[in-house]
Specification:
The structure holds 2 protein chains of 2 kinds.
Chain A lengths: L1 H18 L3 E3 L5 H7 L18 E8 L3 E8 L2 H13 L8 E3 L2 E4 L3 E4 L2 E5 L10 E8 L4 E8 L12 H9 L6
Chain B lengths: L2 H14 L23 H22 L4 E4 L4 E4 L7 H14 L10 H23 L4 H6 L3 E3 L9 H14 L2 H13 L1
Antiparallel strand pairs in B: 1-2, 2-3
Helix pairs in contact in B: 3-4, 4-6
Classes of the chains: A alpha+beta, B mainly alpha.
Chain lengths: ~180, ~190
């Protein structure tokens, strides 16, 4: 019995290690397919033809334990501020962390990650933390980032200080500098 | 000191005085159970297991651990608090066949218990690493157990396959039953 229990434990560890390996897709032409494949993403992620005028566009669709998409737009000096104002003024953001019982669903509503200021979007259709969107910007890189995450199995984003940074680090992909 | 000699002596004295027999003359530090017919280690393990089970049953009865219906399956909230295999199987049988939520499931109680145990293993394995910032994402997912109508309806393959492995060990026939129910309702 002990041997069988050991074998199951080893099997589970191997499966978890395999699950920790993610797949990244970056084809902008497949953007709408990526959005369609993530439950609820179409309610937040913009369609490509309704975006402000941008210089370049990148997309990172990441299948890990959950699914995430990161749409990164780079703007010119002239367009960046107006685009940022238009996008951020059209969206509501969470003002307080979200808790349930002893656990943080969303421990931070605004944080900085590799030069991007990222804010968690407030939307009644989201199911925090399983399914929600975020918006980020980098004044230095003149970029705006639309981010959406979905994983029905995620129960909490726990309450250590830098937890949202770790969450974005493990669940989203950004360009490597 | 000759322990066997001492035990023999004490037992003879006890018999002479027609007392009930006691373990190592009530002094197991000094004397031995040379014939091994008093399995104290097994007794202690059984007692510890029973206390563990009682604690887990209390968590369920007090509402600390409970089931939230979601139509097709549902969620055992704070399932990581109940880890005793007997209680896990017992509560799974209750959920599947006797509770008000029994219609949320098509599969077997073994399938429910197996998914629950996978979450518990995931939680236990990642508990200490998560305190140091590692494997937090798995730990975050293992606190509650999300259940589908059958184990085959589980979305996450990294839960489904380990759960099936546990079912193979616990009761392989239930896999056939669960798969039949799965294809019948898909």
């Amino acid at each position: 019995m002990i041997k069988r229990t050991m074998l199951i434990n080893i099997f589970v560890i191997v499966v978890f290690l395999l699950a920790a390996c993610g797949k990244v897709f970056t084809n902008v032409n497949d953007y709408s397919d990526y959005v369609d494949s993530i439950d609820g993403a179409d309610s937040f992620m913009p369609s490509l033809n309704e975006l402000p005028e941008y210089l370049s566009i990148e997309v990172y669709y990441y299948e890990h334990l959950g699914q995430s998409i990161n749409l990164l737009l780079t703007f010119s000096d002239e367009n960046y501020e107006s685009a940022k104002e238009a996008v951020f003024n059209s969206i509501d953001f969470l003002e307080q962390p979200l808790m349930q019982d002893d656990f943080y669903l969303i421990p931070e509503v605004e944080f900085e990650y590799i030069g991007y200021i990222i804010k968690v979007v407030d939307n009644v259709n989201f199911k925090y933390p399983e399914q929600f969107g975020m918006l980020g910007y980098s004044d230095e890189k003149l970029q705006i980032s639309f981010m959406f995450f979905y994983d029905d199995s995620l129960n909490q984003i726990s309450n250590s200080k830098d937890r949202m940074i770790r969450f974005v680090e493990s669940e989203f992909k950004f360009p490597e500098d | 000191m000759d322990f066997a000699y001492n035990v023999g002596n004490i037992q003879a004295i006890l018999t002479d005085f027609n007392y009930n027999r006691v373990y190592c003359a009530n002094n197991p530090v000094m004397y031995t159970d040379s014939d091994g017919d008093f399995p104290i280690l097994i007794f202690l393990i059984a007692a510890a297991y029973a206390i563990w089970a009682a604690q887990d049953i209390y968590d369920i009865v007090s509402g600390d651990v409970y089931f939230n219906e979601a139509g097709d399956g549902g969620q055992i909230v704070d399932s990581y608090k109940v880890q005793n295999p007997t209680v896990v199987f017992g509560y799974s049988i209750y959920l599947r066949y006797f509770s008000d939520s029994k219609d949320c499931f098509d599969g077997s109680a073994t399938g429910i218990a197996a998914e629950w145990m996978v979450h518990n293993i995931g939680y236990d394995l990642t508990f200490i690493p998560s305190k140091f910032g590692y494997l937090q994402n798995i730990n975050d997912r293992a606190i509650h157990t999300d259940l589908g109508r059958t184990v085959f309806a589980e979305d996450d393959w990294y839960v489904r396959y380990p759960a099936l492995a546990i079912q193979i060990v616990a009761n392989p026939i239930t896999i056939i039953y669960d798969y039949y129910q799965y294809i019948k309702h898909e």
